[in-house]
Amino acid sequence: MIHGSGKKTPRRMARMGSLPSSAAHGLHQFINASPWEWQPVRRRLAQRVAAESVPYAWAVAELIIPKSGGHSVGVHRRVDPATGQPVNCQRAVGLFLAGDSHAFPVDWSLVLNGPWDWDRQRRRRTRIPEEEKERPVGARVLDYAADAVTLPRAAGLPWVLDLTRCDDAAGVLAGLARERLDVVCEVDPGQVVLVGQHTPTVSTVGALMGIGHARQPHVMVRQTPDGRTKVVPIHAYAGTVRLPQLAAGSDGAARTYRVLERPAPDGRLPARYWITSLTERPVDEVLSLVRGRTAALSAVSGLQDRFGALDFEGRSFPGWHHHMTMASAAYVYQYLDGTSGSASLPPAPAATRLTRAAS
C-alpha cells in the first residue's frame, strides 16, 4: 500500500491491499473518528529514528496543501511565496530529524488563522481543541524545541532553519538561545546584530559582511551531478556578534554568533547569509549541517508525491493529525524497515567540503 500509485485515501488503500469492502470504512473511522492521541505516537516515532539512524540536526519545513473548498480545517487563502500566486490551502509546519542521508518527519502543526482562531462554530464543527490558537510559525518552532530537549539521543542536536521569511527571526534565535540550543540559521541580510564587546554597535549581517577587511575568505568545493567540481566562495566574519534581544540580562545574553555569507556566484541572485552559535567549529563542519534543511525539503516532496500528505479527505482537526501521523510513520518505515528503503527515498545532497582559501 505504501508503494501503490495514486491518492492514499481509505478507499484506494483498501482496494490496493485486496481487503474486504468493509476495510475502507474501518480505515476511514480509524483516521477521522477514532479518539487515539497522535502525540505519543509521534514521540515514539522520533525515538525510533533517533535510535536507528545517526541524527545530526533538527530541521523545520513548511507543507502547503491545496484545497478546492473552504470547509476543511485551517483552509485559507494566501500568497504562495514560491510562485507569487494566491492559493486556497492548508498550511502545515513539520518537524524533521535529520539522520544518515535523510530527514524524517516526526511532528506536525497546522497553522490556524483568521476565523479558525475565533469562529466558535467552525472550531466546533472541525473539533479544534480549545488550547489550539493562532500562533506565528516562529512560536511553533520554539514549541518543537521545548519538546525536543527531552528526547534521548537527539536533545542537544543543532537546529538548522531558514528564517529568511520568518516575521520574528530574532525572537526564534533568542528563544533557542534560552534553551541553550545551537543553531545554523539562514537569515535575511537585514538581521540585526550587535558588534563589539564593551561598547557594542548595532549593525546588520548584510552591512557587516560588506566590510571587506572584516571577513575571512573560504571556498566551498562540491561535486555537481555530472561529476564536475564546483568552487563557490564563502565569507566568514572575522569576529563574533550578539543578538540585541539577549543583551538585557537574559539566560542567553553571553551567547555569541558567527556570520557566514555565500556571495551569488553569477552576481544576479542575492547573497545568502547564515548566523550560527557554533563559533568554535570549522566552517566546513558548520555548513555541512545545512544539508539537514535540504533533506527536510526533499522529505516534504516525498511525503506529497508518494505518502499521501496531500490526500486527506476529511475536514476535522484530529482527522488531519491522524492522517499526517500515519503518512509520517509510513515514510519512516520505508527507510528503517522497508525492503526498498533508501533506494526509493530522495537522498539529501552529498555533504560539501570546505577548504580555507589563501588570503
TrEMBL record:
This is Transposase IS701-like DDE domain-containing protein. Residues 6-203 form the Transposase IS701-like DDE domain. It comes from the Bacteria.
